[in-house]
Amino acid sequence: MDTFRTLVLLGLTFMFNVSGAQEFQQPYKYKGDGIDVVDVPYVPTPDEVVFAMLNRAQAGPGDIHYDLGSGDGRIVIAAARDFNVERGVGIDLDPQRVKEANANARTAGVTDKVIFVEGDLFEFDFSEATVLTMYLLPEVNLRLRPIILDDLKPGTRVVSHAFTMGEWEPDAFDNIDGRHIYYWMVPAKVEGEWRWTVSGTDYRAVISQDFQKISGDVLKNGTALPMQYGEMKGYDIRFETRLRDANGRVSAMLLEGTVDGNTINGTMYIDGESTEVTVRRVN
Prior knowledge:
Blueprint: H1 3-19, E1 25-30, E2 38-42, H2 47-56, E3 64-68, H3 74-82, E4 87-92, H4 95-108, E5 114-118, E6 131-134, H5 138-151, E7 157-161, E8 172-176, E9 179-185, E10 192-198, E11 201-210, E12 213-220, E13 223-226, E14 229-233, E15 236-244, E16 250-260, E17 263-270, E18 273-281
Parallel strand pairs: 3-4, 3-6, 4-5, 6-7
Antiparallel strand pairs: 1-2, 7-9, 8-9, 10-11, 10-18, 11-12, 12-13, 14-15, 15-16, 16-17, 17-18
Helix pairs in contact: 2-3
């Protein structure tokens, strides 16, 4: 038995343990990078978990919802019927599941808002999603992770039933009767050097990024101090440090704002005093 097949079988065993005594149905398959076929067993998501996933994502009017490995369509249908998303798309490689999902959509009366597509997740463009849900194996999640981070807009809400995204730590976690739900918000990319000026004083931030966490140094007139805390929430950035003036006095500094490409529009606070700032990435 090859290594990948062994990993898949181990994943199936773990999925069965975390999902309770549910009946496994016909698997659906995804190709993925360098892998001919990835078998992912179809296990229906319980209704209470469906609700919790969509509730955690704060799905609602205006959202474009995609469900990867949509099975019988229950998550997409619930998003349209119960959360009133603008549009829902389910993707599955199993034509029987797609047929079943379309029938369920007709029964639920939501065919004007949802569509189910037969396709390979790794070849399908779901970049317009504002809410993304999935119930897949860890190996598949990891293969999807760079696509999610690179192709989806910052602020897109991602919810996974049962499995994580490896080193990308979730922003939130829920336990629904022993079933785990993981939530992430896609962060804007802010790594690099940023500069701004306040009252003739030059500031510079050299930022490193690890998913939603940011770190680095903040420099005031060339004197560097490390960030004490930094995070991204979609387009929103926030970091804190301690600044030292020419007399050696230390001041608490907080910068928070909204990222727009190579610009941050926000507010800088020093010892409680606030100043509106425009911060620009220089490299």
